[in-house]
Design a protein that fits this description.
With 65 residues, the chain is of the alpha+beta class. The protein has 2 helices and 3 strands. It has a single domain, classed as Rubrerythrin, domain 2 (Single Sheet), CATH 2.20.28. The protein starts with a helix and ends with a helix. InterPro entries: Rubredoxin, Rubredoxin-like_dom, Rubredoxin_dom, Rubredoxin_ET, Rubredoxin_Fe_BS.
Length: 65
Amino acid sequence: MSGAAELSRYECRICWHVYDPAAGDEVWQIAPGTAFADLPESWHCPNCDAERHQFLPLDAEDRDA
């Protein structure tokens, strides 16, 4: 897997929260630079508590928008 794919942003299908690996997650105390695939299994959306399977990857072209 390429570094770019590992650091893709993911969006919650329920509330549209975006997990950005560059920022990490302050609520869950996830350090910046943590790829979505490396989040703990217990991680949920910090906004709506949706499980990880509710997140979809954002397309690469959306990252620069």
